[in-house]
Amino acid sequence: MSRGVRVARWMAGVIMIAYGFAKLTGSQFTVLDSELTRPMGEVSGFWLTWYYFGFSSVYRTIIALVEIGGGLLLIWPRTSLIGALVLLPVVGNIILTDILFLVGALPASVTVLICLMIILRPHAQRLADAVLLDIKSSRRGVTLRAAAVVAVLVGAWGLGYWFANYNNREPTPIDGVWTVEDGGAPLEQVFFEYNRAYMAVFRFADGDAVHHFEVDSGRVRVWADWMEKGRLIYEGEIVDPGRIELRPSGGGSPVVLVKE
Fold it and tell me: How many C-beta atoms lie closer than 10 Å to residue 212's C-beta?
């Protein structure tokens, strides 16, 4: 084993072990109280990532153990190839996270990736022979397989598109965030959800209530239960593109909403 590979093994191993223990000791994936109280739409990519990965202590521990275990495998020559294969997807994910969520640890993760490439390079041909099966196929078989793959890709895309645009969404002119201007206390905001067909979320000071809404020729109606409707609780009309007036079905003061 060359000196360069030995240096790469130790460098990558030490960095990954340090990464792992940073998660176990709370150096990583802990979020400031000031960030926890910030609306999610205002949270930076860095803190969003930290909160997501730190939400589950079990998940955080599993990641840490994989990084520590992979680092230890790298240090021992006999298991260094296993360690490199285990850590390669982990480090790839770290690099993508660093770049796309602006985490700021890119130099260390790129260094580990380069070290892993140095460790794997002498075994490249053996790995290729191990994962690429020597199976001969007829021209007809290749053609049929290619056609099947295209069919699967088109079908998967079509199913996803249908769910997003015909099952999940039923766009209306009032989709978006609305603030209560008058008559809604203790109601504060109403969200006519674009990405969930017919869903209206009424936000009160003490929590949210999910309702069903429909719009027909400028008329707005809101029922108690999303998708099941239940009893009618509000009905009203779109006064103008930025203003809605809803009247409680049981009587009472109208609720005036203005679009944010």
Answer: 20
pLDDT digits (tens, 9 = 90+) for 206-225: 899 999 999 998 999 999 99
pTM of the model: 0.77
Q: Which fold has domain 176-259?
A: Lipocalin (2.40.128)
Taking the CA atoms of residue 64, residue 69, residue 75 and residue 79 in that order, the dihedral angle to the nearest 10 degrees is: -150
Identify the burial level of 257 via C-beta atoms within 10 angstroms of its C-beta, where 0-12 means exposed, 13-18 middle and 19 or more buried: buried
Task: With H, G, I as helix, E, B as strand and everything else as coil, classify residue 7.
Answer: helix
Alpha-carbon radius of gyration of the chain: 28
Q: How many CB atoms lie within 10 A of CB 6?
A: 15
- C-alpha 58/C-alpha 229 separation (Å) is 39
Among the listed ranges 40-49, 73-82, 143-152, which one has the minimum average pLDDT value? Answer: 40-49
Residue keyed to tokens 């109601």: 187
Distance CA 220, CA 236 (A): 5
Whether 186 shows a pLDDT value over 90: the answer reads no
Residue 34 has pLDDT above 70, yes or no: yes
